[in-house]
Amino acid sequence: MGRSGHACSVLGSLLLLLLLLGPAAAQKGSTWKTLSGDAPAVIAKGGFSGLFPDSSDPAYSFAVSNQDSAQWCDVRLTKDGVGICLPDIKMDNCTTISDLFPKGKKTYRVNGVSTTGWFSVDYNSIDLT
């Protein structure tokens, strides 16, 4: 078998493969295995934390921009009663608050335990924007 015979054989094999796989690729995808057959509702805590760091600005921003998502976050109240999303009660565990307010460390009893750190209840919402 010469070069042209080998090339025809390879080309023929590729065409046969495409003919066999074509109908499989064109088949309609299966329905969702939910009670209604619709796509499942996905609610992720901390924004789109599968794509972005948990509870980060990009994670929340992307979740808000997607029509098929719902927001779920841990809400902390500020001194003026505004709710903000923070994954931890101590702001210094999830923000750089200590850089902005180095003298803002306080101690509170949280669930019966003396806890020291920066807390959202010590700041007005305007101070945190």
TrEMBL record:
Residues 1-26 form the signal peptide. It catalyses: a sn-glycero-3-phosphodiester + H2O = an alcohol + sn-glycerol 3-phosphate + H(+). One of its GO terms (biological process) is glycerol metabolic process. PANTHER family: GLYCEROPHOSPHODIESTER PHOSPHODIESTERASE, GLYCEROPHOSPHORYL DIESTER PHOSPHODIESTERASE. It comes from Triticum turgidum subsp. durum. This is glycerophosphodiester phosphodiesterase. SUPFAM superfamilies: PLC-like phosphodiesterases. The keyword Hydrolase applies. Residues 40-129 form the GP-PDE domain. The keyword Signal applies. InterPro entries: GP_PDE_dom, PLC-like_Pdiesterase_TIM-brl. GO terms for molecular function: glycerophosphodiester phosphodiesterase activity. Keywords: Glycerol metabolism, Hydrolase, Signal. Its EC number is 3.1.4.46. It comes from the Eukaryota.
